[in-house]
Amino acid sequence: MSEPVRLRDCRPEDIDEVLLLWARSDTISTANDSADALRTRLRRDLDLFLLAVDDRTIIGCVMGGWDGWRGNIYRLVVDSPYRRRGIATMLVTEAERRLRALGASRIYALAAEDEPAAIAFWRRLGYQPNPIVRPYVKDLH
After folding, report:
1. What is the pTM of this model?
2. What angle, rounded to 10 degrees, do the helices at 15-24 and 35-44 form?
3. Is 88 contained in some domain?
4. Are the beta carbons of 64 and 48 closer than 8 angstroms?
5. Is residue 114 included in any domain, yes or no?
6. Would 86 be classed as within a structural domain?
7. pLDDT tens digit string along 54-100?
8. Which residues are CB-contacts of 34 (< 8 A; sequence separation ≥ 6)?
9. Domain count, the chain
10. Is residue 31 part of a domain?
């Protein structure tokens, strides 16, 4: 009998496995999908990069960010065979708890417009589209 899925902080030695999880999932790749970018992320917000682990296998992750004013949640991924088991909700709930402990009173979550399942997920957790602010992006690479 396997142990229940548990959450833990990401560590530098997990980076390659996280990148493999992203590669085999149906998420949109970004310019930051690299080991160097993830190492930088870990240095910045070590306790906001969370993993879901089944035995020793990484099956999910989420990254939170805190800029001292608001929280952000992004790169929520759960491996396909483990979806629909509440793992994404566990990851987000823990990220929210940690951001709240840092002082966040508002959290932004990023979801691609063309991913209706992701939009439905965030709405189920109480997140709503922001009718006032539209994100703009500039890649510096």
Report:
1. 0.90
2. 120
3. yes
4. yes
5. yes
6. yes
7. 988 999 999 999 999 899 999 999 998 999 999 999 999 999 999 99
8. 19
9. 1
10. yes
Q: Which residues pair with 108 in a beta bridge?
A: 72
Tokens 């929520």 belong to which residue?
76
Range of the domain at 19: 6-124
**pLDDT tens readout for residues 11-23:** 999 999 999 999 8
The domain that contains 16 carries what CATH number?
3.40.630.30
| Rounded CA separation 18/116 (Å) | 24
Environment class of 47 (CB within 10 Å of its CB; exposed 0-12, middle 13-18, buried 19+)? middle
